[in-house]
Write a structure and sequence with these properties.
The chain has 10 helices and 11 strands. With 379 residues, the chain is an alpha+beta fold. It folds into 2 domains: 126 residues, no CATH class; 215 residues, no CATH class. The strands form 4 sheets. Strands 1-2-3-5-4 form a 5-stranded antiparallel beta sheet, with helices on both faces. A two-stranded antiparallel ribbon has the order 6-9. A two-stranded antiparallel sheet has the order 7-8. A hairpin with a 7-residue loop joins β1 and β2. It is globular and about 55 Å long. The termini are far apart. 38% of the residues are buried. Pfam families: FTA2.
C-alpha cells in the first residue's frame, strides 16, 4: 500500500523543502507502539518501529481552514509593532514550516542541530488507526484526531529521541527537565547555528526539547520567505529588513526566559521529587540573552551601544525590545558561512559569554528595575 507516489519536495515554491519518506509507514514492516501524551498544538506523535530502529511519526491535525489576510502589512503603530503580518505568520502551515526548516538543515548538512527528519508522509486517519495493535491505542488516536478536517493527514517521520534515563517511568519527564541543565550550553549554540542557517524557531520552550534535542519546528520560519523581507535588501511591503534579526533575538530571549530562568525557578522543587543527580549545579549560569528590562523607564535610563531600540517580534502577547543583536541574521544565511563573518562572530561570541556572577548581577538588576530603581550593570 503506497503512502504517496509522487517524489516531490514539499512545500512547493521558492525556498527549501522536504523529500518524501522512502519507506511505507502503512506496510507490515512498521509497527505502531503508542500515541504519545506529549502536548502539541499542531499534531500527534506516534512511536513506531521497524524492528531495527525507532521512529517518531508526527501527524499534523487541521481543525479549521486557514484564513490568511494577504492585504495586511507590518505596522509600527501601537501594539501591532510586536506582530509580524498575517501572511508572514500563516502563509505556511505548521507541516510546511517543518518541511522548510528540516529541508534547510538537510541542504546545509546541519541535521545535528535538531532531531533528524527522514521525510514526509501522507495517510488517512482510518489507515493509521488500524495499525495499532490494541483497542486502547486506537481509541486514544481516534480521540486526538476526531476534529481533524484534512484527509489524508500529512506527517513527518523523525528519529525517536529517548528522554534522559530514570528508574521511575512516571518521573522521566520531570527528570528530563532537571537534567536539561547539562545540555543548555550546546542548546544555546545550536540555536545560534539555526539562525546562521536561516531558521528561527519562534516557539522556544523546554517542552520543545527532549534530552537536549530540539524536536519541534512547527512554528518556525525559514529564509527566504515569500511574504518576508527580501534577501537583496530591497524594500518589502510586508515585513521590514530587520524581521529575521529581530526574530532571532526573540528566540534567544525566549530561551533565557522560558528555559534558563524557569530551570532556576523550579530546580529545587524537582530535586525534592527526584533527588540531586551527581554534578547538578544549584544555579544555571548560562546566558542566551541579557535579562530584559522590566519597563520603558528602566530601559531609557540604561544606555546601550546597539542603536535605537526595535520591537522584538514575537508570537505571544509580550512587548520586549531588542536590546542586543543575535549573533547571526538569518536573512543573510547564504553569506553567514563566509570566513570573515565567522571569524568576527567567534570573537564577539567569546566576549559576550556569561558567567555566574554576571547572570546573578543581571537578575538583581531586573529586581531593582521592577522596584523602579535604575542600575548600570552590563552583561
Amino acid at each position: 500500500m503506497a503512502v504517496m507516489a509522487p517524489r516531490e519536495t514539499l512545500p512547493e515554491g521558492e525556498g527549501p523543502g522536504l523529500q518524501p519518506f522512502e519507506h511505507d509507514i502503512l506496510s507490515d514492516h512498521f509497527q505502531y507502539l503508542e500515541v504519545l501524551d506529549r502536548k502539541t498544538s499542531h499534531g500527534i506523535i506516534i512511536k513506531a518501529t521497524t524492528g531495527k530502529r525507532l521512529y517518531a511519526i508526527k501527524l499534523f491535525i487541521t481543525q479549521e481552514a486557514p484564513e490568511v489576510d494577504y492585504d495586511q502589512c507590518y505596522s509600527t503603530n501601537g501594539e501591532t509593532a510586536w506582530d509580524c503580518c498575517d501572511a508572514f505568520q500563516r502563509h505556511f502551515t505548521p507541516f510546511e514550516k517543518e518541511c522548510r526548516a528540516f529541508g534547510r538543515l538537510q541542504d546545509m548538512g546541519c541535521e545535528h542541530l535538531a532531531v533528524r527528519a527522514h521525510g514526509y508522509v501522507s495517510a488517512t486517519s482510518t489507515q493509521v488507526k488500524v495499525k495499532f495493535g490494541s483497542i486502547q491505542a486506537r481509541m486514544k488516536f481516534h480521540d486526538r484526531v476526531q476534529h481533524n478536517i484534512q484527509e489524508p493527514m500529512m506527517g513527518i517521520v523523525k528519529d525517536w529521541v529517548n528522554m534522559a534515563p530514570h528508574e521511575d517511568e512516571k518521573l522521566r519527564r520531570v527528570h528530563d527537565r532537571l537534567y536539561q541543565v547539562f545540555h543548555i550550553p550546546q542548546m544555546i549554540e545550536n540555536l545560534n547555528e539555526l539562525h546562521k542557517n536561516g531558521i528561527v524557531v519562534r516557539d522556544v520552550r523546554s517542552e520543545q526539547y527532549v534530552n537536549g534535542v530540539l524536536v519541534d519546528l512547527s512554528c518556525s520560519e525559514t529564509a527566504p520567505h515569500p511574504y518576508g523581507p527580501t534577501p537583496s535588501g530591497e524594500p518589502s511591503k510586508y515585513q521590514p529588513r530587520w524581521t529575521f534579526a529581530s526574530l532571532a533575538a526573540w528566540d534567544l530571549y525566549a530561551f533565557q526566559h522560558c528555559i534558563v530562568c524557569q530551570w532556576n525557578k523550579h530546580a529545587e522543587a524537582w530535586v525534592k521529587r527526584l533527588g540531586r543527580p551527581q554534578g547538578l549545579p544549584i544555579f544555571c549560569p548560562f546566558e542566551a540573552y541579557p535579562v530584559p528590562y522590566a519597563s520603558e523607564e528602566a530601559r531609557a535610563k540604561h544606555e546601550r551601544p546597539y542603536g535605537p531600540f526595535l520591537p522584538m517580534l514575537t508570537l505571544f502577547d509580550q512587548t520586549p525590545y531588542l536590546v542586543k543583536p543575535a549573533r547571526w541574521d538569518p536573512l543573510e544565511w547564504e553569506t553567514n558561512g563566509d570566513e570573515d563573518k565567522v571569524k568576527i562572530r567567534k570573537i564577539t561570541g567569546k566576549a559576550k559569554e556569561g558567567f555566574v556572577e554576571e547572570v546573578v548581577e543581571g537578575l538583581e538588576k531586573l529586581w531593582s528595575d521592577e522596584s523602579g530603581n535604575s542600575s548600570s550593570s552590563s552583561h
